[in-house]
Amino acid sequence: MKRKRHFRPDWTETAPAPGTVRSVVKYGAPNAYKHPSDGWVAMMMQEFGMDEGDFSRKIEEGNIEVVLDRPVELKDEHIRQISAVVGEENVSSDAYSRVRYSCGKTTEELMELRKGIIREVADIVVHPRGKHDVARIVEYCDREKIPVYVYAAGSSVNFGVRPAKGGITLVLSTHMNRLLEINELNQTARVQPGMFGPAYEEALNNAPEHSGTARRYTCGHFPQSFEYSTVGGWVVTLGSGQASTYYGDACDLVISQEYVTPAGTFRTLDYPATATGPKVNDIMKGAEGTFGILVEVTMKVYRYLPGNRKYFSFMFPTWTAAVDASREIMQGEFGLPAVYRISDPEETDRGLKLYGIPSFVDRHLIRKGFVPMERCLCLGTVEGDAGYTALVKKRIKKVCRDYGAMYLTGYASKKWEKTRYTEPYMREDLQDVGIQIDTLETGVTWDNLHKVHQCVREYIKSRPATMCMTHASHFYPQGTNLYFIFLMRTSDVDEFREFQRGIIDEIACHKGSLSHHHGVGRMMAPLMDEHLGKEQMEVLRALKRHFDPNNIMNPGGQLGLDLSEDQKKRVRT
Questions:
Q1: Which of 129, 135, 166, 314 is the most exposed place for a label (fewest CB within 10 A)?
Q2: What is the CATH code of the structural domain delimited by 179-303?
Q3: pTM, to two decimals
Q4: Region 307-420: CATH code
């Protein structure tokens, strides 16, 4: 009996041509790809009413040359002065550079670029060689009232790198990308902000060879964008890694920072704790380039003990059981897992299709009472000393079983770990056939989790033929996050924008945070006054006036600090 052939689209597997829009919008390495599984293709056909022909016709791929009919508005003298600081070879004003370094990976940006729509761009792109270059450039730009924007990896998903008022974009990852020092006694690392995650982790893992240390170390911070995000980006957007439940968020890892601001350059102190008033060190975290430019950061590091890692996975009968067990684990005082994730019913079943669960395994789960669209998958790891990891895994297993979960060994977690950085690659394939996939995340307390989850899902699912997958992946004794992934078939930017902003409004209406770990950017900016309240926003604006009296640092709405009431209304509509 012949096995039924699965339809497999002719996905693109060639690197984008140089100078094209495709080379700007593509995620990650030019020659790297991860395509939707056959199961996911079949699922999308069913959900979106598509046929093989729909998956065979590629639309708006971006295989067009970047064309920018927009003159550089900086005076020639400004360009000469900046070139004198960094060298002419580190200043670009060609169309491709101006567009490439003015865009992140926000879905709306990618949709528009594919259509040939180019929004705001910098006048010139500058690659400083070190912090002294940055200081001289900021001083000059402040004197001449030239806007300054910062670009490192370009993986922002909230318009965080868009130069709303022209000026210059400083690219920190070109030259400012080194591990400067490991202090083994203090267990810290001093690093430049443009260092990419893999390079940082490799340098720490191989510290005896690179830095002459006695031990090997790990950074403890592994966001999904790990391969294409930088240490500085983690800090200035208040990022959170997939192992944050144990190691902490990016803000928890920072010991001290050095900033260049229009008001001057300063370095905060390296004390692990001090009672000398409100901490400027904390104020600068998450400032998203609005006060100044991070030029060095000292981070906590941890002993690298990969052989002690323990994996686990469970299937819970319901979302409520998964949430209740997770809360008990986080509040149990017996230790914390590193990676810990729970997927809601829709994400669980769609994820099983994505990873190709064997049919006999699915039948076994159903026989045991784990019903599709009710069951919830849990994945995780424990890291640290061997005795610690064994104890924590044992206690987690007991709690999960108390809440009706079935232990699935560590197989599912190991399988997830192998592909955890490659999921974003699927976006190109989906956009090629007119399907948009995007995410919005929010922080919630335990007592508000179910309300936010239910109401946001109801809004997303009110649109016909729309998928909504949700997981929680950053846990605290007091709450967690909800990470909503939605898929919809549309190539209409206006339709997408309106729907996405409706989701944001729904999150805010039900008291979820505007962001949990992606930062605010310009996407959430119009809601910041309402979210934080007048007094807190006035504190941030007072800091802005001190550090940046001429408003040259990332002006145009970042964090909502310089939006007028009319601008807020226009952005929201």
A1: 129
A2: 3.30.465.10
A3: 0.96
A4: 3.30.70.3450
